[in-house]
């Protein structure tokens, strides 16, 4: 059994395929290696694939007709992504861009759908997977509808702090990149960060953001528009 | 019992008549009065349903009491509680009967054995879920990229599409409108009067008259 087959055998949907089918899937996979900032698929393109991310990180973002970008979520190593076009043969509503060098394995609809029809238990895993994705999308919608930018920024900083082992985070993202996650502008992010610093919540250096008052940040995160 | 609603629904299209009968036998029918809360946000509600009569609104309320209408389900629409697919997962929205409504419901317990053995039906349902995700994607796009004025202009234009003529009956309150565009009644009120000042609409107590549709279309595009 190859490493890829081993990895897939524990994943949703794939776990219901017998070993010989998994082995064939590994043989039929298209492997793509792309560098940081390169695109795996573009918004508007019909891209009927399932991908397994063996290494690196991808971000999913939407581009408005006016050229604004909103980054919605990340796909991390070991995760599987089901492209929208796989289901409806329609253009993708967003783009997948590499945050780091990426190694991805892809399967086309032509390969995957007959197999899913053959193994209905595997098919049954798909709506379950889509339920989680829809839940994430709804959370983003609610935060955009109900939370002011300051709350969204506080939430974003706290999420980053959670994945760091320290009481500070490295400034790995530009202001534009943070703004694209929060659906705002770099200017607003900058103004709010320095407002948080003036309020004694954060300390900002060129390379780091350290947390001086996490409780205040948590309070800010729960603020809704009406409370402001 | 008639199964005409199932026969006419694309989700059940590829099923044989015996399979449709089986599905129908596994369902229950429930009628809800207008404004009845079918299920609440966060509750474990393990059902898939088909709207046979009336209308259902899926909405989310913020801790501060504001509402966002996520989707309005009409006759023939199929929807589900998150708990239908994953046991113990709470509802991400509340469901309210906006009119007297009749639903045909299937519990997880009754339908899962059928779905686990019928790949085509599950695939059709997955495609329907993807349609809903694209709807969520459009809502996201509007909230992320369009200012309130653009979203409000879009709402008015959508309503105009369903009407003949240039007059819209004011059958939604300011709160209803705010809930559909993720804003507050104060903002909706302010922007409506701003549209009127610009000459895009005329407002009276019972209706809006669209006096300059092109201007309204420009406003809907602004900020995108």
Keywords:
heterodimer, A: alpha+beta, Jelly Rolls, Arc Repressor Mutant, subunit A, 2 domains, four-stranded antiparallel β-sheet, 11 strands, B: 224 residues, alpha+beta
Could you give a quick summary of the protein structure above?
The complex is a heterodimer of chains A (about 230) and B (about 220). Chain A is an alpha+beta fold and about 230 residues long.
What does this structure look like?
The complex is a heterodimer of chains A (228) and B (224). Chain A is of the alpha+beta class and 228 residues long. Chain A has 2 domains: 3-144, Jelly Rolls (Sandwich); 148-227, Arc Repressor Mutant, subunit A (Orthogonal Bundle), CATH 1.10.10. Chain A has helices at 3-8, 19-28, 84-88, 109-118, 120-146, 149-162, 175-182, 186-198, 214-221, and strands at 30-34, 39-41, 49-55, 57-63, 69-76, 80-82, 95-98, 102-108, 168-170, 202-204, 208-211. Chain B has 224 residues and is α+β, with helices and mostly antiparallel strands. Chain B has 2 domains: 4-144, Jelly Rolls; 146-221, Winged helix-like DNA-binding domain superfamily/Winged helix DNA-binding domain (Arc Repressor Mutant, subunit A, Orthogonal Bundle), CATH 1.10.10.10. Chain B contains 9 helices and 11 strands. Chain B has a 4-stranded antiparallel beta sheet. In chain B, strands 2-7-4-5 form a 4-stranded antiparallel beta sheet, with helices on one face. The mean pLDDT of chain B is 88. Classes of the chains: A alpha+beta (228), B alpha+beta (224). At the A-B interface, helix 3, helix 4 and helix 5 of A face helix 4 and helix 5 of B.
List the helices and strands and how they pair.
The complex is a heterodimer of chains A (about 230) and B (about 220).
Chain A: H1 3-8, H2 19-28, E1 30-34, E2 39-41, E3 49-55, E4 57-63, E5 69-76, E6 80-82, H3 84-88, E7 95-98, E8 102-108, H4 109-118, H5 120-146, H6 149-162, E9 168-170, H7 175-182, H8 186-198, E10 202-204, E11 208-211, H9 214-221
Antiparallel strand pairs in A: 1-8, 2-7, 3-6, 3-8, 4-5, 4-7, 9-11, 10-11
Helix pairs in contact in A: 6-9, 7-8
Chain B: H1 4-7, H2 17-25, E1 28-32, E2 37-39, E3 47-53, E4 56-61, E5 67-73, E6 78-80, H3 82-85, E7 94-97, E8 101-107, H4 108-117, H5 119-145, H6 148-161, E9 167-169, H7 174-181, H8 185-198, E10 201-203, E11 207-210, H9 213-221
Antiparallel strand pairs in B: 1-8, 2-7, 3-6, 3-8, 4-5, 4-7, 9-11, 10-11
